[in-house]
Structures are given as structure tokens and as C-alpha cells.
Design a protein that fits this description.
The chain is of the alpha/beta class and 92 residues long. The protein contains 3 helices and 4 strands. It has a 4-stranded mixed β-sheet with strand order 1-2-3-4. Helix 2 crosses helix 3. The longest helix is centred in the middle third of the chain and has 16 residues.
């Protein structure tokens, strides 16, 4: 299960993810991401991954796609920090 909570202010869109970013939940996270970004143009984009407990390959691919679109990440814990480092180290 994955909870997706958009947080929007004047300059930034933050999508807070909590739970498992795997399988069908990736599709929902991506849908929420696309809708939230389309409805709020001109803001920077960020994913808050501090509540993510598991990532599968689909989840990693989603993170890579949003990074390629210019998103930044908030992460904590070994799991998400390692994936974020891997994605951001590979560059755009």
C-alpha cells in the first residue's frame, strides 16, 4: 500500500510518498505526479521519500523518470538514500 500526499506552496510541489513504491502503486504515484505537476505549472518539483519502506524495479524507474524531469528528492534511511544516490550520481 502507498499513500500519496501532494503538498503545494508558492514555489514548490512536493509529493510525499509513504509505504511501498512497487507494482501497481507506481502507476498511481506516477498518475498523481503528472496531474499535480500539470495543475501547478512554474513550480519546482520534489518527491519526499522519507516514508517509503520498499522500492522495486518499477519504483526505481519512476524515480529515475521524475529525476530526468528535474525533480529533487528528500530521503532518509539506508534504502531510499542509496537509491537516490544511485539515481543522482548517474546524472541527467
Amino acid at each position: 500500500m502507498l499513500r500519496v500526499t501532494p503538498r503545494i506552496d508558492e514555489t514548490t510541489i512536493t509529493l510525499q510518498l509513504e509505504g511501498r513504491l512497487a507494482g501497481p502503486t507506481v502507476i498511481e504515484a506516477e498518475r498523481c505526479w503528472q496531474v499535480t505537476c500539470a495543475e501547478n505549472p512554474g513550480r519546482s518539483h520534489r518527491l519526499d521519500l522519507r516514508g517509503v519502506t520498499y522500492l522495486d524495479q518499477e519504483g526505481k524507474s519512476f524515480l529515475n523518470r521524475v529525476f530526468q524531469q528535474g525533480a529533487s528528492f528528500l530521503s532518509s534511511g539506508c534504502l531510499t538514500r542509496a537509491y537516490v544516490e544511485e539515481i543522482t550520481r548517474s546524472g541527467k
